[in-house]
Amino acid sequence: MPNNIVPLYQPGQTPVENIDTRITPLIDWWGIQPEIPDDIVPGLIPRRMVTLLAGRAGFGKSFLCQMLMSAAAVGADWLGQPVCQCKSLGLFSEDPADRMQPRQDVICKHYGIDYTSLTDVSVITNDDGDFELFSCFRRFGPGTPRTLWKKIELRCIEEGKELIILDNAQNVFSGDQNNPLHVNSFIRYFNSRARELNAAVVLLCNPPKDRSSYFTGIQRWEDSARNTLSLQAPKDMNGKEIDGEFVLKIEKSNYIPYNHPLKRKGITLCWENDILVPRDAEEPIMLDTLGKLDLQARIVKAITHATDVLGWKFAADPLSPNYLPGKLAGQRQWQHVSWADLVSALDRLLSDGKLIKVCVRDAWLIRAPDSQPYLGESNSTL
Questions:
Q1: Are 35 and 158 contacting, i.e. CB atoms less than 8 angstroms apart?
Q2: Is 11 exposed, middle or buried (0-12, 13-18, 19+ CB in 10 A)?
Q3: CA 93 to CA 124: how far, in whole Å?
Q4: Which of 191, 247, 257, 330 could be joined to 266 by an S-S link, Cβ 3.0–4.6 Å?
Q5: Within a 10 A sphere around the Cβ of 157, how many other Cβ atoms?
Q6: DSSP code for 262
Q7: How many CB atoms lie within 10 A of CB 92?
Q8: What would the pLDDT profile of 223-263 be if each residue is shown by its tens digit?
């Protein structure tokens, strides 16, 4: 071998992987009709990936998943949303059978079905057994699936399960929830299994005790999951939680528009006859000229109170979870206002100088001109 030629790998080393089969020229897509997404619940529970469902203990995450499995068995609606009829398996590591059965009786009554309709639904309840599905034994190494998951996956293949519930992350994941490598390998692995099974995997988790985020652990949890939902108690403009109400909302989804109603407002739920049902929302109304002027004045007043008294932040970026119209639309007292009117009012208020954009750590936030500056605010304004 000439001296100026260096081998790609030395003898005894692992050869470099051939990636030819992984590279797709875009021209290959020419003339191919894209497949229509076949979500379990359109917009909420997509197939072929992990959906992270986070919410405080006692809010009803497990109950909602039990409802979802029942709705999928018969093709009924779930929280007012259509559901693809399919077979399901749920691992409920916190709930014993004698607690789940009474809940299932209530759910069956709600849907008008009996247990003969649930032959395609299977559950693993809290029997004090092992629930670890994935373990990370090395601090700086990825994790590996455990035998229990291999058995569950084989059962899902044999029985054609298309919806898999894993309740919850702290019991099925044996690793450091604050280690990016552990978290990423865990989510990536179950994403790959969801694709292989053509199934939806719903992973439940709890937020931290200080409620600084809707999910526990580090940001990598949300970054690794392609679809994340939160179940939270809505707050009024005084920052107090509205008693007896919950909001199921898409916090992150790479496959629906940012202004999708399930992202902006979510689904407001309440308990009725021991079942979680969507609360009837007022239909948005389009405002006339006087109505728009009144809306603008209300927005300025609300933002001034929220920033100066409650310490809220409002973003100018439509992709931010703190986007001003989105934050307002999530409040009960604003849900009668159409999205178009909220966005139009913001544009008018900014152009008239009644609201201003200010730069805070490379992000543009919105406040009233005479409000208190945000912490870390620079002198730049728009």
A1: no
A2: exposed
A3: 7
A4: 247
A5: 12
A6: H
A7: 23
A8: 788 899 999 888 776 778 888 889 999 988 877 776 677 88
- What distance in Å separates the CA atoms of residue 70 and residue 231, rounded to the nearest whole number? 20
Give the single-character DSSP code of 373.
P
Residues 6+ apart with CB under 8 A from 233: 56, 59, 241, 242, 245, 246, 247
Tokens of 192: 């790959």
Please identify which residue in the block is written with the tokens 């609300």: 302
Q: Can you list the alpha helix ranges (DSSP code H) found in the chain?
A: 61-74, 97-111, 147-159, 169-172, 180-197, 220-224, 261-264, 289-308, 324-329, 339-351
* Dihedral angle of Cα 189, 194, 197, 200, to the nearest 10 degrees: 160
Q: Which domains does the chain have, with CATH numbers?
A: 49-278 (3.40.50.300), 289-381 (1.10.10)
- Could you tell me if 217 and 177 are in contact, meaning their C-beta atoms sit under 8 angstroms apart? yes
pLDDT tens digits along 56-96: 888 999 999 999 999 999 999 999 889 999 999 999 999 99
Q: How far apart are CA 127 and CA 38, in angstroms?
A: 34
Two tokens at 221?
A: 């949890």
